[in-house]
Design brief:
The structure is a single chain. This protein is an alpha+beta fold and about 350 residues long. About 55% of the residues lie in helices and about 5% in strands. Strands 1-2-5-3-4 form a five-stranded mixed beta sheet. The two termini are about 20 Å apart.
């Protein structure tokens, strides 16, 4: 999925602290990743490709297949970025994860998608500027561990995920299975963790309403400033991706989330050469291809995740997009992936 959001980020100070605590030489990592020392000394911004190179260098320099797990578990709230501090003091685990999903892009051009099902919710991560480049395994491990650590530290309980899927081979299988406490599917089509509904509804012992009343407006201000650098088209698509599972998003609810009137949203989208309806269709098409590439989802589940009331409506729309059925597209995609391997 493409994005017009700026492809730049500053390496989080949290990562440098994590490397220090894991006894990994930061300067050596920078050299191994072929990055300028200004990244370390002057906090210079880097691209997604450079960030991936940094994490691959961490894997190489550390020579530890479980380095992502070790970095994430070695950190504490005192060194976490502000979005995670707010999440740590949320009311419930679900509230905390929603805050992470909303504010994570303040830290990096990364998207956290939360999909709600009857008995669980699934979190998946994606990097819009990553292209075909696979996300480094240590980065994925650290991200998934950070989700679980958030819940365990907030509730004071050793929460066990329902399942974990990783789109890579089985390095550090034993260490990861010991930490997560669940079976892990490697070589999956997506990086995704599923959490039980009853765990998500558990209250955080660290809940602090007064602190959230201070942090939330500041994070909203930062997000508003951040979004100002994105086109309204991309902002709208981001809201649509979050709202699809609740049914067909209407312009009124999307405009409200973007803090503007329906008329203003329509006018500004027109100025960017696109209509709201076209964005709904485009977003559904893009998400349909992403979900169909995940063989663990049934076609009925894909239709639901796209906000369709029934499977037939999804099938008719998909034939218009791809001139074939979802089943035929999935089979062709699987065959192409197998041939590529």
């Amino acid at each position: 999925m493409s994005s017009t959001a700026p492809d730049k980020l500053k390496v989080p100070s949290t990562l440098w602290e994590g490397l220090k605590r894991a006894s990994v030489d930061r300067a050596e990592v920078i050299r191994c990743a072929n990055l300028p020392l200004s990244v370390l000394k002057d906090d210079a911004p880097i691209t997604t490709a450079q960030f991936f190179a940094l994490w691959r260098a961490i894997e190489k320099v550390s020579q530890d297949p479980a380095i992502g797990l070790r970095i994430a578990t070695g950190l504490d709230g005192a060194v976490m970025p502000l979005p995670f501090v707010a999440a740590q003091h949320a009311r419930t685990f679900r509230d905390a994860l929603n805050r992470v999903a909303r504010f994570k892009r303040l830290c990096a051009p990364e998207e956290v998608t939360v999909q709600d099902f009857a008995n669980h919710s699934a979190l998946s991560i994606s990097w819009p500027h990553g292209g075909s480049d696979r996300v480094p395994r240590a980065l994925v491990d650290a991200t998934m561990v950070s989700f679980v650590e958030l819940g365990r530290r907030g509730t004071g309980e050793r929460l066990i995920p329902l399942s974990l899927e990783l789109a890579r081979s089985a390095e550090a299988r034993l260490a990861l299975e010991k930490y997560f406490g669940c079976d892990i599917k490697f070589d999956a089509t997506v990086d995704r963790i599923a959490l039980r509904r009853e765990d998500l509804d558990k209250l955080f012992a660290t809940y602090n309403k007064d602190l959230l009343d201070v942090l939330a407006p500041e994070l909203d201000r930062r997000l508003e400033h951040h979004d100002a650098s994105e086109s309204l088209t991309e902002q709208t698509k981001w809201v649509l991706r979050r709202r699809l599972t609740a049914g067909r998003p209407d312009i009124r609810s999307v405009a409200a989330e973007l803090a503007m009137s329906e008329r203003s949203l329509q006018r500004r989208l027109t100025d960017e050469g696109v209509s709201f309806q076209a964005l709904v269709t485009q977003t559904r098409h893009q998400m349909a291809l992403r979900h169909l590439a995940d063989n663990s989802l049934t076609l009925i589940e894909v239709a639901y995740l796209l906000g369709y009331e029934d499977q037939n409506s999804f099938f008719r729309a998909f034939r218009q997009w791809e001139a074939q059925t979802p089943s035929d597209w999935r089979a062709a995609h699987a065959a192409a992936c197998h041939a590529g391997n």
